[in-house]
What does this fold into?
Amino acid sequence: MTKAKASILIIDDDEDILLSAKLVLKKHFDNVITRNNPKEINQILSKEQIDVIVLDMNYRIGFNDGKEGLYWLKHILKINPKMVVILMTAYGEVELAVNAIKLGAFDFILKPWTNEKLLATVHAGLTLSRSNHKISILKHTNETLLKNNEQQFGPIIGDSDAMQDVMNTIDKVSVTEANIIILGENGTGKQHLAREIHKKSLQNNGPFIHVDLGSLSESLFESELFGHKKGAFTDALEDKPGRFEMAEDGTLFLDEIGNLPLNLQSKLLTVLQDKKTSRLGEGIERPFNARLLFATNVPIHEWVAHGKFRQDLLFRINTVEITIPPLRDRPNDITDFINHYLHLYSEKYQKSHLKITKEALKVLQNHKWPGNVREIQHTIERGVIMADSNEILPTDFNLTIIPKGNEVQSNEFDNLNLQDIEKLLVQKAMDKYNGNISKAAKELGLTRAALYRRLEKFNL
It folds into this structure.
């Protein structure tokens, strides 16, 4: 007989009761804990993930009013309002037990019990406990997805040989459980590719949870990824599951992992090795079951050689590496992207008869696209919005042409508009460092966050 994976806590001051209950329940549940003193409840709940508590109502010799049981019931529900508590009571205390149910107890068992009744009641309590847990996870997962407000991702675009090689690799690895790291410059579509892997995986009915580690502050790292317990810090007003829990039976995509500081790399490595997480402020270890995908725009192998990224972590996350080539290395795909986004935004802005002039198309095809797919997407959207007739002109795109070479040309600053010059310099820095945010920000004398804001501002 297979035991249910559950932790049942029994509290009674009668050792015979504890022994009898444990003998019955341990045949059906893999972890049965007994205690003869309810004062140990706090310690146990801080260390163990308890699914069901079976609680006696009387602990003082000669007293059968059940007041202690009611006190500890309220205490448990104050710690965890969703905890399933089953009361043990004598025949003469049935009315008291019914009142306790009104206070939040799940059910009660009469002493002496029948084994069938005990098992049935605990099984019913476990079902409710698991349901409460799933509802909590789904609630926070849904809130996270709504908060992110991510756009809908369509099919992978690109008929070039390079992209066909990428898609062939995806077809091979998606149905496995292998950890995958996706490499590529900013804007090449790493998240899009991760979603495609999820769609083709065996976990495609589960959630897809995206975490941008590059925008996650160090102070929030553990809380966001592993969750926190109510009261773990000032703003922790309720228990909250981490992203690892939210991704249960689905896919967890950790983006920009190359930007993770070394001390946080160590914490992540431990979690990946143990396949368990602990919420901040809580000592309970929770196993997770999620497909793990990673991505970065940095030259990760070079960073390992220079001690900026842990080699053991790289070994853990890159069972398979997939590199998305930049748009400049697959010019044949540019027209496909132009047509895709022209159709998408013409429909969105109700300009279905809009066309791109030959001159405008030539400008797009000759552009180097340092911002890759993201840049071409924003450029086409801007062209659709700015078009005054049924044709999009070259000027509608507002593209700044960056001259070849790293030297500043004399005619680059004929336009002395500060915003245009700032945009040009940002584009040059991104192009110079092939989309590497850290290096471009350093060259410009900006923080990473400040550069991110400018990329968003200029739709790069």
